[in-house]
């Protein structure tokens, strides 16, 4: 009780910061504990390796594409633990975007008719319910071998680079030296790969959120005390790759992207998560040589892995 009381009275730490808790323990006197809040807690309960063990890399990227297009995805497995772990892991891959539709990692058989809805969803279903599922009037259900544009909608160069990194995930995770104590480094490698993928696609968004000031002028400076507006066409056309522009044309119509931009229009200065840090690094690298606009995916991620291995 004294320990819990001391925690409740302490100021809640910012991400990455620590607090010192003094508590009296009978028999040992006063003890000081240092508690650290994780700088990025998204991956605390995410098991990406479970996802890779159940799906091939190519199929995983097809599922990833389906989610980016906000389609209907049903996961099936024999075990509840596998089902929930895979659903949580695939949703974590969408960061910094957030799934805006129905999400039920383990769907009870009594609620199976939910999969008949025409709106997007992610649901997990035990294999024992597949017979009952097949009897329902499902709309546009396709199996693994029937996936269509999910295999071609991602920009080809970015997809190839992403596949390359994911195939080498164990090598990158182990490339940290003998003093490594971070057991979650494999998850970090996977997460950083997908974050970098999104940085290359939408990392230039701050340049196209302008502040409408009272004098009628626009400014891209975040210090301007005014409402912000997103310049959609300028943002899309700023990408030189035709395949990336084609993808953005579809992706920008999703609720995920709409929520992403809305949050940054309303809370532009308050958002400082991992993605914003990587975006700032990306923009700084562009500013160093703004006349060169090349895809630095593998080089950038490789440098990031080297940095992580030295931490």
Give the helix/strand layout.
Layout: H1 2-9, E1 18-25, E2 29-36, H2 48-54, H3 57-68, E3 72-77, H4 80-92, E4 102-104, E5 121-126, H5 130-134, H6 156-167, H7 169-174, H8 185-202, E6 209-212, E7 218-219, E8 227-230, H9 232-237, H10 242-251, H11 255-266, H12 274-288, H13 297-310
Parallel strand pairs: 3-5, 4-5
Antiparallel strand pairs: 1-2, 6-7, 6-8
Helix pairs in contact: 2-4, 6-8, 8-12, 8-13
Total number of strands? 8
Order of strands in the sheet with most strands: 3-5-4
Strand content: 5-15%
In whole angstroms, the N-to-C terminal distance is: 36 Å
Radius of gyration: 22 Å
Instruction: Tell me the quaternary state.
Output: single chain
The chain-level mean pLDDT equals 82
- For the record, the count of structural domains works out to 3
State the main characteristics.
single chain; 311 residues; alpha/beta; Rossmann fold; 3 domains; 3-stranded parallel sheet; 3-stranded antiparallel sheet; 8 strands; 44% helix; globular; cDENN_dom; dDENN_dom; guanine-nucleotide releasing factor
Structure write-up:
By secondary structure, the chain is an alpha/beta fold. The chain folds into 3 domains: 2-37, no CATH class; 48-140, Rossmann fold; 161-213 and 226-304, no CATH class. The protein is built from 13 helices and 8 strands. A hairpin with a 3-residue loop joins strand 1 and strand 2 (29-36).
């Amino acid at each position: 009780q004294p320990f819990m009381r001391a925690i409740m009275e302490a100021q809640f730490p910012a991400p990455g910061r620590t607090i010192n808790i003094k508590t009296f323990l009978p028999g040992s006197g006063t003890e000081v504990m240092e508690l650290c809040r994780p700088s990025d807690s998204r991956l605390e309960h995410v098991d990406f390796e479970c996802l890779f063990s159940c799906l091939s890399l190519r199929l995983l990227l097809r599922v990833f594409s389906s989610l980016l297009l906000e389609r209907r995805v049903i996961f099936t497995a024999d075990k509840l633990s596998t089902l929930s772990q895979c659903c949580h892991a695939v949703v974590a891959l969408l960061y910094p975007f957030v799934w805006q539709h129905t999400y039920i990692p383990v769907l009870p058989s009594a609620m199976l008719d939910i999969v008949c809805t025409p709106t997007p969803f992610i649901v997990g279903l035990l294999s024992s319910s597949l017979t009952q599922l097949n009897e329902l009037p499902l709309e546009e259900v396709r199996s693994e071998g029937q996936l269509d544009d999910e295999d071609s909608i991602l920009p080809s160069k970015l997809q190839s680079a992403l596949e390359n990194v994911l195939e080498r995930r164990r090598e990158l995770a182990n490339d940290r030296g003998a003093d490594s104590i971070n057991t979650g480094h494999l998850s970090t490698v996977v997460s950083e790969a997908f974050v970098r993928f999104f940085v290359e696609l939408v990392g230039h968004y701050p340049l196209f959120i302008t502040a409408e000031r009272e004098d009628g002028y626009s400014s891209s400076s975040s210090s301007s005390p005014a409402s912000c507006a997103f310049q959609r066409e300028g943002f899309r056309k700023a990408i030189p790759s035709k395949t990336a522009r084609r993808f953005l044309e579809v992706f920008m119509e999703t609720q995920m992207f709409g929520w992403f931009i809305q949050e940054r229009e309303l809370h532009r200065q308050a958002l400082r998560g991992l993605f914003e840090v990587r975006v700032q690094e990306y923009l700084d690298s562009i500013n160093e040589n703004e006349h060169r606009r090349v895809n630095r995916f593998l080089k950038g991620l490789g440098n990031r892995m080297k940095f992580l291995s030295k931490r």
